[in-house]
Each structure stands twice: as structure tokens, then as C-alpha cells.
Amino acid sequence: MKAIQYLAQPRFTRSVTFTVYRQNRQQEESLQVNAEEGKTLMDVLSECKQIKELDEFGLCGGELSCHTCRVHIRQGYAKIGQKPTVEEEDCFSLLGRVDYIEGVTRMACQIKVSKEMEGAVIEIPDEAFTQL
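The line above is the sequence of 2Fe-2S ferredoxin-type domain-containing protein; the predicted C-alpha cells follow.
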């Protein structure tokens, strides 16, 4: 009797590349991130091993209750094509003028990575990182 071997076909997933940077008082760091379409930006950034000390980011797990996954889309905001939800807009109203920039600030838990994000520039505010 012949054994039949079944090989699982890899599922094709699209990869999107964008730039993430952190600007703090001492320096500016940036890196290119490849992300799988469909994941939330919060999950992609949290899982990215090149981004160190991102301990204060996404503490509520995407429930829009902690405001810690706030990012600034410095380039490509209009291309993303995903408008903030009513709940996200409510979240923005709780942020101070320093933390919210209209047409730039988004909550990473509410953004699904898509091909439209290709080439975007995303800033993670310094407050999301462990403060030593």
C-alpha cells in the first residue's frame, strides 16, 4: 500500500511595508516594518521585535479604554482610507490638545493594515515606551 502525503499549501498573505519612528528628546529612531494585511496596527507594532521598550502601548488590548496605542500618521493618512469610528472619535475627545492632532492622530488598535498603508510614516509617541 502506498502512503499518500498531503502538503498544506501556504496561504498567500500580502505584506505591506511602512516606516515607524520614535522621536524623543535625545534621538530619533526609525525602521521599516513589513506587516501582514488584516492585522491591527497595534498588534503589528506590539509584536515587532525591533521596537524595544514598547511596554506602555495597547494596555487595554484594543478596547479603546486606555488611549495608549495612540500613533501619529505623519505621511499617508489620507491614503489609509479608514475613517475613525464614532468610538475612536470619542476617545480623541478625552485626549488633550498636545496628544491629539486632527487628521494625524489615530488609535493603532482601530487601524487594519492594508495595501493603502504602503509607504506610510507612523510615529509612536515617546510616552508609549518604558521611561527609565
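Note on the example: Helices lie at 41-47, 77-80, 86-94. The mean pLDDT is 80.
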